[in-house]
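Hi, here's the filled form for the chain we discussed.

Project: internal
Contact: R.S.
Residues: 705
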Amino acid sequence: MPEINLGADIESRNYVLAVLEALGIEKLMPTQVKALQRGLIDSDKNMVIIAPTGSGKTLIGYIALVKSVSSGGIGVYLTPLKSVATEKLEDLEIICSKIGCKACITTGDYDQPSEWLSECDLIVATYERFDSLLRLRPSWIRRVDTVVIDEVHTVGDPDRGHVVELIGVRSLMEKLRIVGLGATVGNPEELAEWLNAELVYDDWRPTMLVEGFYDRREQAVFFEDGRVERVGSNLEIHLLKEARLGNYQLLIFRHSRQLAESLARLLSSHSSESCPDLLDEYIALDPLKVELDNLRYILSKCIAYHHAGLSSTTRKFIEKAFRKRQIRAVVATPTLAAGVNLPARRVLVSIRRFEEGYLKRISISEYKQMAGRAGRPGLDPYGEVIISDAVSREEAYRYIRGLPEPATSVLASERALRFHILSLISSGDADSVDQLFKILKLTLAFKNIGDSLIEKARDSLEDLIKWAMIVREEDNLRPTKLGRTVSALYIDPETAVIAIENLSKVKKVYDIYYLTLIAMTPEFSKVRVGSVKSEELYSAMEVLIESGNIPLPRWADTYELLRAVKLGLILRDWVEEVREDTIVERYGIGIGDLSVITDLAQWLLYSLGVVSSSVGLKEHSSRLQVLSKRVEYGVREDALELVQLKWIGRVRARKLIASGIKTVEDVSNQSPARIADILGIGVRQAEEIVNEARAICSRRANVFK
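And the returned structure, exactly as it came back:
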């Protein structure tokens, strides 16, 4: 390790050395050295670290957290994705095994304060989960003294940037130490100033990046270092052959799933390699038939595609195989660049995406994010990124030599403001109009647009008062029971309004009514659902309208209704135990999409059940709660009891019911041999199922004594 001052605090120094030893790090990277020199461990000042991918920012975050542990506090590491949170937990568990602490993860159950986290020293959470905890104020939250915000530049993300922003604001209010880790942005100084932080800016990369572009007329790739690489008739096939000859890996970004899949199929038809072992490994995972059918030939040729429509099992398999160098080339959508550390020697980037009916240029920031995947630290002497579709040299140089756009606030949208204003009032942080506006002046949005934010906030506050979620008495503000409930559930206030307005009009409805109702909420507005242009779907909508089994909000147009009907039908098939393969083929969605849809639906049904109860809609409340459980497990109502048991899912529950075993008590009365025979499993696993059923029955008997 380099000779460097780790600070005068001997205990902190020893903790840091223990972290390096635990993670097997023998040499610090320049960005890490800069952070230490600026006071990472010998001060408590906020820091914003802006540096390229692979420059060691994550370790800086870990060191900040460990300093927190050394002083008896709790450190929190925030990530944008659940999958990334799981990876960080693995690192922190290794660190804790060395320094004697406990690492935990929390990513869901937004209305739960999770007091059990008081036992933890280091906590990994998603942005939304930690924001919900800051609202709920569990007892242990007072012990948090350091918050690491990974990907802090996502404060400018249109969908969730406002959550990052309010975490920053609440952390400033509570005087927590903030360490923001971000990729290159156009306004690093402004981000650091907003968070009252020391800026550590570094452009060092662990591998040199050489950028270039493909000239279609010249049929050649021109690199910034002066090299020219001649290409035949197809750029992608040429790059695949070069990767094979040079024994390195290729990562190609395309802006749609369809383009990614079709290009992967094209490459596999031109691949001279064979990967039967890789295919066997994938088959051994027992993937869904539709995914296996689509990937069988492609994987056998050492090629893969990667996008959010794939199941998590398949995505993780492809990521792991690529890291192990079992896959020569992956064609991916840009979600891979944002969420997964998967570098390759060469990266091919498209700078156009089809949007709103025509091709649009992506931002320089998006290009830089994808380009950052070029070059594997410690393995490649350099990384290369090639722009595939620049129409001119000037356009290519705009991306290669241009600066990323600034990260600007998205808090000023109606949805974001009402969401967070309600939370600030419900949590007691703002008990007056003046206090609310004082807090909003701490935001990046106020730095960006000034008093315009306050005017927009006044309108949002009026909406919340009109919706009976906030009461204003002169200058004082307080939440109603409904307001507190909605805020704790972490749902958009308008979602509750839509539910109450529609459920108040009806008494008894079929499940499809509830399932289309939640599909009309703001939370579902960004969920991918594919095409809704079909006569079959239109006919289904007309039937539902005629029978009164679909909500008809005042604002809904034909497209929104068709979209809601499609989502409702997907969810109805799911709770009626239609096979996943059948659902994705019937509705033209991916397995990953189905997972997103069901996860969100389960939470919204549960939340609207609680909301219904709080406003006296008891019958709807109980039915929504049951339906939420059915969506969680993907079963009909008669299987809900059986799926409580470990190892029993929707398929096995139905097998048991078909054999006359309908309750947990029925299972407890069976021999393991019979359960094994019915389910086609081993006797040992069947013994676990029967023993758990007997334990549940025993607990129930004790309750009723």
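Let me know if anything looks off before we file it.
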